[in-house]
């Protein structure tokens, strides 16, 4: 049996959009969909408040079940071929999703949920799931879906090579263009060795271009029908990928790149893009 796509639902608009995105992805893949709502007992949330003033647990469960049933029914109506399973668990949401990701082909969360502060672009649950979940995690913003290309960042790291493979699969599945971005910087270009380095910039750029093409070779051979547009950009990876991802239908990044510290689960580039991207972001592990 195919592993399901797992999506978290807390009733917030971003989480409902995440459910809709996950359902469409399940239809594309022919995968079952598991919608998970997790909540914490009021006693755990408000340990310093007298029991008489705590929200009623039965009411919370009833409301959560209603939201879950409503979303599951909406998915079944829009995507009748998708097998939908809805689960309500009493557990901390991030922990429930991280544990559930071990048995999922993909884990999907909204960019921020009901508990996020106003103006916060990435909620704590989304951040923790993107950091600790098994496999690929997609963070869906509270933005209308765009119909542009799939965009992927590549820097030669193991995680980015896996991200390129996933991006080719997603572009092929969606029958759309793949934009592959490699960002580079010539360190010291503005320092005391500026003159010597300037003489080598063209050669350095050509080397970066060759590395970009090499990173795409295997994907091109496996997915010959996917149109590919390589982009070599001078500047920070966050700026270059953010620019190319405007209007994209999906941005794919490795969990951490060449600059990540040993043991780091989510690199600074990936985390920054989760905060700023206006399209769904897939974080891929090696």
TrEMBL record:
Does this UniProt record's set of keywords contain Nucleotide-binding? yes
Name the domain of life this protein comes from.
Bacteria
Q: Which Pfam families match?
A: Usp
Domain (UspA): give its ranges: 1-141, 149-285
InterPro entries from the UniProt entry: Rossmann-like_a/b/a_fold, Universal_stress_UspA, UspA
Question: Does this entry carry the keyword Repeat?
Answer: no
* Record GO terms (molecular function): ATP binding
Tell me the keywords, alphabetical order. ATP-binding, Nucleotide-binding
UniProt family annotation: Belongs to the universal stress protein A family.
Q: Which PANTHER family match?
A: STRESS RESPONSE PROTEIN NHAX (PTHR46268), UNIVERSAL STRESS PROTEIN RV2623 (PTHR46268:SF27)
Protein name stated in the entry: Universal stress protein
What organism is the protein native to?
Actinocatenispora sera
């Amino acid at each position: 049996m195919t592993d399901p796509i797992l999506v978290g639902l807390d009733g917030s608009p971003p989480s409902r959009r995440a459910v809709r995105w996950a359902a469409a992805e399940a239809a594309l893949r022919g995968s079952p969909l598991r919608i998970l709502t997790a909540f914490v007992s009021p006693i755990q949330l408000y340990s310093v408040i007298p029991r008489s003033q705590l929200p009623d647990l039965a009411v919370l469960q009833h409301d959560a079940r209603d939201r879950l049933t409503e979303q599951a029914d909406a998915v079944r109506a829009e995507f009748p071929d998708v097998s939908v399973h809805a689960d309500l668990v009493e557990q901390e949401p991030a922990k429930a999703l991280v544990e559930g990701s071990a048995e999922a082909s993909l884990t999907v969360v909204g960019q921020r949920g009901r508990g996020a502060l106003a103006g916060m672009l990435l909620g704590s649950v989304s951040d923790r799931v993107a950091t600790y979940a098994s496999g690929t995690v997609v963070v869906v913003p509270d933005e209308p879906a765009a119909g542009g290309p799939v965009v992927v960042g590549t820097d030669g790291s193991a995680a980015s090579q896996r991200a390129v493979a996933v991006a080719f699969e997603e572009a092929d599945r969606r029958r759309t263009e793949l934009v592959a971005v490699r960002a580079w910087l010539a360190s010291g270009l503005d320092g005391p060795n500026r003159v010597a380095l300037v003489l080598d910039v063209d050669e350095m750029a050509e080397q970066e271009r060759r590395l970009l093409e090499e990173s795409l070779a295997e994907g091109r051979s496996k997915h010959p029908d996917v149109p590919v547009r390589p982009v070599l950009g001078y500047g920070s990876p966050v700026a270059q990928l953010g620019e190319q991802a405007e209007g994209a239908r999906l941005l794919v990044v490795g969990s951490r790149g060449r600059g990540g510290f040993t043991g780091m689960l989510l690199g600074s580039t990936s985390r920054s893009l989760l905060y700023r991207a206006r399209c769904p972001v897939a974080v891929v592990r090696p």
